């Protein structure tokens, strides 16, 4: 005669898990127990599955929270980027950037090209991947960044360095170059670049080529040289040329 099956009362276990703050394990407990009994799962395998449910749940929550606080636009990832449409972009180079090694070294990615060629999509996609890798990320359109810099212009250095555009591991600066800066704005941007140089990584998208940056930076050649000297040191420069994704979508819509 086989030994009687022990009746499991998991309420106490559930309460202990909840008391330890293991909310995802609590949620997964019933289903995993049912599977464990049906499959005669060894105890250590059950425990591993329960711990993995907690770990993966916490990681998903961390990513959701970071995506929200980083202000990154939603929906643009490396997986849904159409590399076939834009042969000017080397997929292998983007995949190398997606490893995040350059972020640890505080380097810069500068994406240049006309509107619509995928610069912002890649900036956002690499930002999302950085969050998945565990880096802190903050997104700004360039006009929003200038507004923040001017609002904080009076702050002492010890307070200024706590601002997210200074302290994040990766700063995303999108759509730079549509309007030239005045001298005050160019000086504040120089302060940002100087502080982050060697301390924090950046991705900048711009419709201006490097030779046009003096005009962009209030016509100050000395200041432009100082900024570019810091940005381009150990930088990854992507010159993106090709058709506009938005115009392609418009053409397809008109055909339909």
Please give a structural write-up:
The protein folds into two domains: 11-69, no CATH class; 91-255, Rossmann fold (3-Layer(aba) Sandwich), CATH 3.40.50. Helix 10 (183-196) links the parallel strand 3 and strand 4. It contains 13 helices and five strands. By secondary structure, the chain is of the alpha/beta class. Helix 1 packs antiparallel against helix 2 and helix 2 runs antiparallel to helix 3. Strands 2-3-4-1-5 form a five-stranded parallel β-sheet.
Strand content: 5-15%
CATH homology superfamily of the largest domain: P-loop containing nucleotide triphosphate hydrolases
- List low-pLDDT spans: none
Largest sheet properties: 5 strands, parallel
Strand order of the largest sheet: 2-3-4-1-5
Gyration radius over CA = 25 Å
Helix content: 40-55%
CATH topology annotation of the largest domain: Rossmann fold
Series of secondary-structure elements, N-terminal to C-terminal: HHHHHEHEHHHEHEHHEH
Taken from the alpha-carbon principal axes, the silhouette is elongated
**Count of the separate structural domains:** 2
Secondary-structure arrangement, i.e. CATH architecture of the largest domain: 3-Layer(aba) Sandwich
Indicate the CATH class of the largest domain.
Alpha Beta
Q: With helices defined by DSSP (H or I, 4 residues minimum), what is the helix count?
A: 13
Tell me how many strands there are: 5
Note the gap between the termini: 73 Å
């Amino acid at each position: 005669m086989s030994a009687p099956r022990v009746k499991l009362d998991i309420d106490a276990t559930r309460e202990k898990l909840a008391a330890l703050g293991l909310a995802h394990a609590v949620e997964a407990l019933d289903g995993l127990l049912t599977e464990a009994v049906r499959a005669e799962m060894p105890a250590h395998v059950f425990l591993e599955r329960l711990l993995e449910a907690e770990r993966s749940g916490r990681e998903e929550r961390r990513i959701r929270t970071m995506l929200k606080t980083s202000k990154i636009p939603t929906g643009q990832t490396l997986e849904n980027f159409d590399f076939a449409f834009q042969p000017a972009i080397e997929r292998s180079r983007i995949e190398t950037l997606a490893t995040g090694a350059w972020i640890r070294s505080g380097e810069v990615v500068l994406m240049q090209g006309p509107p619509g060629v995928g610069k912002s999509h890649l900036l956002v996609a690499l930002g999302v991947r950085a969050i998945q890798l565990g880096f802190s990320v903050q997104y700004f359109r360039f006009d929003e960044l200038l507004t923040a810099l001017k609002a904080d212009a009076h702050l002492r250095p010890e307070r200024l360095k706590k601002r997210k555009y200074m302290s994040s591991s990766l700063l995303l600066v999108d759509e730079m170059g549509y309007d030239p800066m005045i001298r005050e704005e160019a000086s504040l941007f120089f302060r940002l670049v100087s502080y982050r140089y060697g301390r924090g990584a950046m991705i900048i998208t711009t419709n201006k080529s490097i030779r046009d940056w003096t005009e962009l930076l209030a016509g100050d050649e000395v200041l432009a040289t100082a900024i570019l000297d810091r940005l381009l040191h150990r930088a990854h420069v992507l010159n993106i040329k090709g058709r506009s994704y938005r115009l392609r979508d418009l053409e397809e819509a008109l055909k339909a």
